[in-house]
Structure formats: structure tokens, C-alpha cells
């Protein structure tokens, strides 16, 4: 869940230590940093309008401006905005977790920021960034690599630093309609980092623009084939989406695999009708429409406490959120592994 207290402690620490930060960090980009900024500048052509989120003292913006880029500087920390004002630079307040990003941009720079966001805040932020980019626009960001988070102790208290595996991070980029154009991994002072330049892979899907509104929430809606049962889920993370190959899912659906989108149980509501319940083994509760037979959702408090698994093909916009993982592959039908080699036709074969 989002942790406002953790975000507040992070900002409080920057408010107190902004002046010290000036002495600890070089005002000139490193060779890798300069290369990344040059790549962003090239990707931002021909419009050359970039918004920087988390501008800090503004040194990266300074470098971009030497490359002919018009930079809109923003930061959530008042102390950094004051430092930039003393340098004759204008920097607007912007907290990307809670504020809308103004306008549409050729590029976005957000370096050394994501590690401060709670794990389930990332997807909403990436969708918000994608919405603020023109088609083909570029996003430059960085994150801490690894499997486990850690706690950072500062003058403002203790706050969590979030690490990401490459596979998980790139899956969330794809969910937001972004593809990696260039990346570089490097060892920082304390942790391994990865810097990524991602591009909008064509027009931002209407579903991304429509469902992820201010605040980053998505209202998922769906229902059965006949319309007797309808549901909705108010969520902030749509990346827990997997295709399951287990025998139980195959037998209950009559399909070779089933796609499930996991949402918090307390955010899921049946808005019309009543689904019929069938109790399987091991605490499984499968719900379906008693009129048309459509499978809808699943609870299992023993295995998935607090989770509702939605059969994602029943979503009104089932194409909006692609699965990020295949699970129970040990039980996958053998021929599913070569299904992509089977010829396909648009409708039915001739004759």
C-alpha cells in the first residue's frame, strides 16, 4: 500500500539536507550521466521541450539547456526550489505522486527519484508519465536494482528505499505503453543502479489515458456474457496479471490456460446481480454467472489472503492490461509451448 508517512519523511529529509547535498554531489554530470542526457536531448527533437521531475539543484537541467533543450524544472522540495531561485532559475512545485503533470512533453527527465516511491505506487506514476508524453516521446529515469528493499536512516528519520528487478521494472514499463530504447547498469556509491531511456511505443492507449486519471487510480469494470452480473475494482496497480496453466484452472474453464488479474479484495465490488459460488479444493472459491456460466472471479484466503483474482477476459477493456507473467508452467500443456508456430487466420478457414 502507498505509505504517505514514508514519502513525507523522504521530503522532510531533503528539506533539511538540501544545502549539504550541494557539497556532496558534483555539479557536472558524470560521463554516463552526460551520455544519458544527450540521448534524451536527441530523442526530444524536434520539439525539444523537456520537463524535469525532481530537479534538485538543477544541474542536469543546466546541462540539457547547453544542448538546446527548453527545460521546465520542477521539484517537490521547497529547499531545492529556493536554491535554484538563488541561481536565477525558476523551478515549479510538483509532487508526481499527487499532482497532475502539466502539458504534453517531448521528453521527461526523472533521475534518482523512483527509489523513494512505495512498490505499489510505481505503476500509477509510469502511466501518468506516459500520458504526459507525445507519441514517440522519451522518458529518462533511474532506479536501484535488486531483490530486497532496505531502510535508510537520516536526520528526518527512517525511510524505505525500494529496489526493482529488471524483469519486473520492464514489465511495468510495458504496461504503461513504454519500451526501453537504451539502458546502462552501474555501481553507485552504495547500491547497483540502472538508468533507462524509454519511449512511448506509438499512441498512448485510450485505456491508459482514460482509466489512470489524477491520483493514478484505475477503475476496472467487467461482467459476464449475458450481463446479469457486473463488477468493478478501484485499484492503483494493474501489473499483478498472470496467465495460469494449472490443471485446476483448465478444468474449471474448459480452456488451455486462464488469465487472472489480482486486485485487493476490499477494492472489489459486485455492482449488479449475484454470482454463483462453487467451492473447489484447498480453500478455492470460484464465482460464475448462474445464467450464462461465465467464470468471473476467485477467492482463496488460504493461498491468496486479501486478494480477489479477476478472470481478466471478462473486463470491459480486456486488452488494456497485458499479463506480466505465466505461472504454473510445470502443469502447462505441452503443445502450448509451440502454439505460436501454429498457422492463424483472421476468422475461419476457407471451405
Give the termini distance in whole angstroms.
Answer: 55 Å
Assembly type of the chains comes to single chain
- The residue ranges in which pLDDT falls below 50 over 5 or more consecutive positions are 204-216
C-alpha geometry: elongated
Strand content range? 25-35%
Structural class by SSE content: alpha/beta
The sequence of SSEs as H and E is: HHEHEHEEHEEEEHEEHEEEHEEEEEEE
- Number of contiguous helices: 8
Mean pLDDT rating: 86
What does this structure look like?
It is a single chain. With 351 residues, this protein is an alpha/beta fold. The protein is 24% helix and 32% strand. It is built from eight helices and 20 strands. It has helices spanning 4-24, 31-43, 59-66, 78-86, 122-131, 166-175, 206-211, 247-253, and strands spanning 49-53, 70-75, 91-93, 105-110, 133-145, 150-154, 157-161, 163-164, 178-187, 192-200, 218-223, 230-235, 241-244, 258-264, 268-272, 276-279, 285-288, 295-299, 307-311, 325-327. The strands form four sheets. Strands 1, 2, 3, 4, 5, 8, 9 and 10 form an eight-stranded mixed β-sheet that branches. A seven-stranded mixed β-sheet has the order 16-17-18-19-14-13-20. A three-stranded antiparallel β-sheet has the order 11-12-15, with no helix packed on it. The model is unreliable at 204-216 (pLDDT under 50).
Indicate the topology:
Elements: H1 4-24, H2 31-43, E1 49-53, H3 59-66, E2 70-75, H4 78-86, E3 91-93, E4 105-110, H5 122-131, E5 133-145, E6 150-154, E7 157-161, E8 163-164, H6 166-175, E9 178-187, E10 192-200, H7 206-211, E11 218-223, E12 230-235, E13 241-244, H8 247-253, E14 258-264, E15 268-272, E16 276-279, E17 285-288, E18 295-299, E19 307-311, E20 325-327
Parallel strand pairs: 1-2, 1-4, 2-3, 4-5, 5-8, 13-20
Antiparallel strand pairs: 5-10, 6-7, 9-10, 11-12, 12-15, 13-14, 14-19, 16-17, 17-18, 18-19
Amino acid at each position: 500500500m502507498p505509505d504517505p508517512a514514508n514519502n513525507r519523511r523522504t521530503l522532510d529529509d531533503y528539506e533539511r539536507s538540501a544545502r549539504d547535498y550541494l557539497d556532496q554531489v558534483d555539479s557536472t554530470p558524470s560521463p554516463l550521466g552526460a551520455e544519458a542526457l544527450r540521448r534524451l536531448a536527441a530523442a526530444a527533437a524536434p520539439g525539444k521541450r523537456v520537463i524535469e521531475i525532481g530537479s534538485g539543484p538543477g544541474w542536469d537541467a543546466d546541462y540539457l539547456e547547453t544542448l538546446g533543450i527548453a527545460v521546465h524544472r520542477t521539484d517537490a522540495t521547497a529547499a531545492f526550489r529556493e536554491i535554484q531561485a538563488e541561481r536565477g532559475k525558476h523551478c515549479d512545485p510538483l509532487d508526481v505522486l499527487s499532482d497532475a503533470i502539466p502539458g504534453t512533453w517531448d521528453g521527461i527527465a526523472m533521475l534518482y527519484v523512483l527509489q523513494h516511491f512505495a512498490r505499489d505506487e510505481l505503476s500509477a506514476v509510469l502511466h501518468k508519465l506516459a500520458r504526459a508524453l507525445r507519441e514517440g516521446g522519451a522518458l529518462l529515469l533511474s532506479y536501484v536494482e535488486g531483490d530486497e528493499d532496505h531502510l535508510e536512516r537520516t536526520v528526518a528519520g527512517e525511510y524505505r528505499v525500494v529496489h526493482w528487478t529488471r524483469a519486473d521494472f520492464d514489465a511495468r514499463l510495458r504496461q504503461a505503453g513504454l519500451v526501453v530504447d537504451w539502458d546502462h547498469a552501474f555501481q553507485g556509491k552504495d547500491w547497483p543502479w540502472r538508468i533507462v531511456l524509454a519511449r512511448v511505443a506509438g499512441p498512448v492507449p485510450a485505456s491508459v489515458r482514460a482509466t489512470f486519471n489524477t491520483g493514478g487510480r484505475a477503475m476496472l469494470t467487467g461482467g459476464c456474457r449475458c450481463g446479469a452480473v457486473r463488477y468493478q475494482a478501484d485499484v492503483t496497480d494493474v501489473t499483478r496479471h498472470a496467465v495460469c496453466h494449472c490443471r485446476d484452472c483448465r478444468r474449471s474453464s474448459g480452456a488451455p490456460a486462464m488469465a487472472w488479474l489480482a486486485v485487493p479484495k476490499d477494492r472489489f465490488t459486485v455492482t449488479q446481480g449475484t454470482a454463483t459460488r462453487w467451492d473447489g479444493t484447498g480453500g478455492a472459491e470460484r464465482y460464475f454467472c448462474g445464467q450464462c456460466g461465465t467464470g468471473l472471479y476467485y477467492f482463496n484466503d488460504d493461498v491468496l489472503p486479501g486478494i480477489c483474482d479477476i478472470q481478466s477476459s471478462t473486463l470491459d477493456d480486456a486488452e488494456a492490461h497485458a499479463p506480466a507473467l505465466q505461472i504454473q508452467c510445470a502443469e502447462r500443456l505441452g503443445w502450448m509451448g509451440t502454439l505460436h508456430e501454429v498457422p492463424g487466420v483472421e476468422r475461419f478457414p476457407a471451405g
